[in-house]
Amino acid sequence: MKKSLILLSIFCLITALVALLVVGLGRLEASHGVYWTDIVTLKIQRANLDGSNVEDLLTVGLGPLGIDLDPVEGKIYWSDGGITDAIIKRSNLDGTGVQVLVTGVPDPKGIDLDLVEGKIYWSEQGTHTIQRANLDGTEVEEVVDTGDGLLTDIAVDPVGEKVYWLGNGEVKRSNLDGSTIEVLVVIGTGGLGGIDLDLEAGKIYWTNSGALPRNISRANLDGTEVEGIVQTTSTFFFQPHGIALDVEGGKMYWSDGGINARILRSNLDGSDVEDPVTGLTRPYAIAVLAELTPEEEIDEILEFFDESVENETLEGVGPGRSSADSRLNALRSMIEEAKDLIEAGLIADACEQLMAAYKKTDGDPIPPDFVTGDAAEELAELILHLMNNLGC
Ligand SMILES: [Ca+2]
Predict the structure, then answer these.
(1) Which of 49-58, 108-117, 290-299, 331-340 shows the lowest per-residue confidence on average (mean pLDDT)?
(2) Which CA distances in Å does 218 have to 105, 146, 202, 322, 349?
(3) How far is residue 331's CA from residue 336's CA, in Å, rounded to a whole number?
(4) Rounded distance from Cα 345 to ligand 1 centre (Å)
(5) Would 65 be classed as within a structural domain?
(6) Are residues 172 and 205 in the same domain?
(7) Res 235: pLDDT
(8) Average per-residue pLDDT for the chain
(9) Which of 289, 311, 339 is the last residue of a domain?
(10) Same-domain status, 280 and 325
(11) What separation in Å is there between the alpha carbon of 310 and the centre of ligand 1?
(12) C-alpha 278 to ligand 1 mean position (Å)
């Protein structure tokens, strides 16, 4: 009797500890993961990258078709609705704060964000065009008249100033002013495919859910060196729709809307296929957020700073004890100031502040560092990574 009570107490204690751990981790893992739309259940859902913690974020209108994410502002953008009066919307990454951005969009399909110029791009099957607007939905303008009756997903290359799309069973691109439409790859029969770009390696990835054998393929940005990387001969067991690349993590994610509806992922060359999320209805467009958001990242930096001061791997440098301490505190204040600027959306100012903080811990004597110790170099690297994430 006594023994079972002790066992029960131990069990309760372990349960409480596990719950605490899950809550603690949940704070940082809340936003990064894989996000997708389902065109039958009319939901937007997400899961962690390993497939755990599948959540319903939103229930939407007549079929959410395109989805993309803004990790800087922490937003989901999607196209939602019917043939004549569809809309482009956004919400926070947890599904709260839904805003209507653009109305009266004829049959929208893919959505892609250009966070360099601050634009939403979408394809309209109804008008055969690709359109864009500011992230707040203002200044709607036509980018290209594709002339494609079957126009599906799009992907923007803001650096090369091109837009890529799947139209009438072909992979095509044009300049962002709509000029010079090029047919890059002929797939065959059109399907409800998705497209994404790996701009580091200079590759286009697309899914072919129309012509048999259905597959996922890639090619160079100019359409050369086409290779099928995930193949099947089955007619209906495999229906790849959306595709999203995590280039840094070396993974691609795609939705399979076939009988065994699920989210899959593999390495970028198609090896090591896994299905982290199964038992879905008809997943369609997909987006992946592999990095921490800048807000999460700067919280991590402050946490790292405090831990390093606590365990004495980071300390101030100065002519005397009090001067060293005040420099240590000054550097922390600079990082906190950058956090406030990020939260206020003042990214250019945040970049300037982070660069100033970086120079106080970079090991270069000019200007003099405010900190020293084993953690100083890692602190500098964390600040640089965040600047990269912000697009500084
Ligand atoms: Ca320095």
Answers:
(1) 290-299
(2) 30, 22, 10, 59, 39
(3) 9
(4) 27
(5) yes
(6) yes
(7) 56
(8) 88
(9) 289
(10) no
(11) 22
(12) 50
Do residues 268 and 301 both lie within one domain?
no
User: Last residue of some domain: 260, 289, 318?
Assistant: 289
What mean pLDDT do residues 335-352 have? 95
**Domain span including residue 315:** 293-390
Q: Kindly give the distance from the C-alpha atom of residue 317 to the centroid of ligand 1, in angstroms, as a whole number.
A: 12
- Same domain? 254 vs 135: yes
Average pLDDT rounded to a whole number, residues 160-166: 96
> How many separate domains does the chain show?
2
Cβ-count burial 378-388 (b if 16+ within 10 Å, e if not): ebbebbeebbe
Are residues 244 and 350 located together in one domain of the fold? Answer: no
Q: What is the Cα–Cα distance from 238 to 194, expressed in whole angstroms?
A: 14
| C-alpha 334 to ligand 1 mean position (Å) | 14
* Same domain, residue pair 79 and 47: yes
- CA of 357 from ligand 1 middle (Å) equals 9
* pTM over cut 0.85: no
18 assigned to some structural domain? no
pLDDT for the residue numbered 209 = 79
Rounded distance from Cα 338 to ligand 1 centre (Å): 18
Question: Considering the domain boundaries, does residue 240 fall inside one?
Answer: yes
Distance 88 CA to ligand 1 centre (A): 46
Helix, strand or coil, per DSSP, at residue 213: coil
Residue 318 lies in a domain: yes
- Distance, CA 329 to ligand 1 centroid (Å)? 16
| CATH number for the domain that contains residue 235 | 2.120.10.30
CA of 325 to the centre of ligand 1 (A): 17
Q: 359: CA distance to ligand 1 center in Å? A: 4
> Do 246 and 297 belong together in one domain?
no
What is the whole-number distance in angstroms between the Cα of residue 72 and the centre of ligand 1? 27
On whether the CB atoms of residues 268 and 245 are closer than 8 A, the answer is: yes
* The pLDDT of residue 315: 95
Ligand 1 centre to CA of 318 (Å) is 13
Helices (H), ranges, the chain: 2-29, 294-310, 321-343, 347-359, 374-390
Residue 233 has what pLDDT? Answer: 59
- Cβ-based burial of 113 (10 A; exposed 0-12, middle 13-18, buried ≥19): buried
